[in-house]
Write a structure and sequence with these properties.
Layout (H helix, E strand, L loop, with lengths): L9 E4 L2 E4 L1 H15 L4 H10 L12 H9 L7 E3 L9 E3 L9 H14 L15 E2 L8 E4 L8 E5 L4 E4 H7 L1 H22 L8 H22 L5 H24 L10 H17 L3 H10 L3 H11 E10 L2 E9 L1 H12 L3 E9 L2 E11 L1 H11 L4 E6 L16 E2 L8 E8 L14 E8 L4
Parallel strand pairs: 5-9, 11-14, 12-15
Antiparallel strand pairs: 1-2, 3-4, 6-7, 7-8, 9-10, 11-12, 13-16, 15-16
Helix pairs in contact: 2-3, 6-9, 6-10, 7-8, 9-13
Length: about 450
């Protein structure tokens, strides 16, 4: 039983702690804004500007935000004697309904530790608190050049005298950014039911709100692409829409129970892959991802990176390019990845030789034969589909072997390669043993009308 002072939103009724849905949304939003890189003061200013009342109807302060994101009650735990001098805190687990996941809470606490260190605040740095010095491993500080020369923004380690230029960092990790943008867009459009893990509630109203906001966002994008408006004309509206979408999408994930849904994850994935194939054929896929990134303000770019990445270590590869030595993703993001892998829905790129050129092909890992059957059946709604197991698979040897598979873009039957699948033969452990790995290829042909 919880006996402490009621934190934000909680009320006692019949000796129990309860919280209303509106305040749940607010708490979740505060945690999300902090993970996106916003400071205590910025969050407080946003809530005050929107006229959102506090529990005592006073103005929001940075100290109030700090207390909220440090309170374990929002993951369901009560910490007794936390601020009592001479007493050791005692944590009681799962005493109230959680609002946020433990992974999100841990991410926020890790972000707090980083933010306590000094960094440059007079400009917006996309990779603030994310780059680690390749020599000593410390967080690189933000620094801008001045004078009459062209101004650059840098990340530097004062101990090792290491400097990384921000524009070159962005160019060097662009392939990673594009993958994260694709993932983010896929989650928002397709994977909500798959990533849900809480109680079932009706989501029709949420779906309608999300659809309306997405339509507004798409209209703005189309107007910009066609040259009808300039960035400054819609920047504020775009930011407001994006923030509302993020909040609604988080709420939607939290209100669907995957165990009571009748959808098939493989059906969802097939629909996603068909849409992606159409964009690739029209040569619009990479352009779409790049437009999504370039349309973001620097603040939005910073928030996007913070949403997924814990830290990156880069080494200089050439004068104008850095290579990734190590990358750590946020635990909240990794939780989603593990769940998708367990459902046979996670794609990786497999190096191969195609049409005598070295390239990479999309492959879904950890899919069993039942899941493969469901995926192919759904795909048959769009194309004539064939599946072949690659009998001449040359399993990787120890060490690096880049030429992993030899694939023809189109086979003798005129069937185009759609994607590869890595089937499991025993359990869903990753990576699979070499003797258990079965690689198959899915090929498609357009239906003859």
């Amino acid at each position: 039983m919880y006996h402490g002072t009621c934190p934000l939103g909680y009320k006692r009724e019949n000796k129990k702690m309860i919280i209303d849905e509106t305040t749940k949304d607010l708490v979740l939003r505060i945690f999300n804004m902090y993970l996106e890189g916003k400071s205590y003061k910025t969050i407080a200013n946003i809530l005050n500007a929107e006229g959102i009342p506090t529990q005592n109807n006073k103005k929001w302060k940075d100290t109030t935000i700090a207390k909220i994101i440090s309170n374990k009650i929002y993951v369901g735990d009560f910490e007794q004697y936390k601020n009592v001098q001479g007493k050791k805190p005692v944590v009681y687990m799962n005493v109230v309904e959680p609002i946020i996941t433990r992974a999100m809470f841990e991410d926020v606490q890790a972000q707090k530790e980083k933010n306590q260190k000094a960094f440059c605040r007079d400009r917006v740095y996309i990779f603030m608190q994310k780059l680690l010095c390749p020599k000593c491993g410390k967080i690189m500080q933000c620094k801008g050049s001045g004078g009459q020369k062209k101004k650059y923004m840098y990340y530097h380690c004062s101990d090792c005298k290491t400097y990384l230029r921000e524009d070159l960092v962005e160019d060097s990790v662009m392939f990673l950014i594009m993958n994260l943008i694709e993932y983010d867009m896929t989650v928002k459009k397709y994977f909500f039911p798959v990533l849900a893990d809480k109680k079932e509630q009706k989501t029709e109203k949420l779906d309608k709100e999300i659809s309306s906001l997405k339509n507004q966002k798409n209209r703005i994008k189309e107007a910009y692409i066609k040259g009808i408006v300039e960035v400054n004309d819609f920047e504020e509206d775009y930011i407001v829409i994006e923030e509302k979408l993020n909040l609604l999408e988080q709420k939607r994930i939290a209100t669907i129970d995957i165990n009571r849904q009748t959808f098939s994850p493989q059906q969802i994935m097939a629909d996603r892959d068909v849409e992606k194939e159409k964009l690739i054929r029209s040569n619009k896929f990479k352009d779409m991802l790049m437009v999504e990134w370039n349309n973001k303000t620097k603040e939005e770019k910073q928030e996007f990176i913070s949403k997924f990445i814990e830290s990156i270590t880069l080494e200089k590869s050439s004068k104008d390019f850095y290579k990734i030595e190590n990358i750590r993703f946020r635990s909240n993001f990794l939780e989603q990845i593990y769940k998708l892998m367990d459902l046979g829905m996670f794609d990786v790129s497999i190096p191969c030789t195609k049409e005598k050129e070295e390239t990479e092909i999309t492959s879904t890992v950890l899919m069993d034969r039942k899941e493969l059957k469901e995926y192919v059946e759904r795909l048959n709604n769009y194309y004539e589909v064939s599946y072949y197991e690659l009998k001449n698979l040359d399993a990787p040897k120890k060490g690096h072997q880049k030429k992993y598979l030899t694939i023809d873009e189109t086979n003798d039957n005129g069937e185009k390669l759609f994607k590869l699948v890595e089937l499991i033969s025993d359990d869903k452990k990753f990576p699979q043993k070499e003797t258990n790995r079965i690689i198959g290829e899915i090929r498609i042909k357009e239906r003859v009308v």
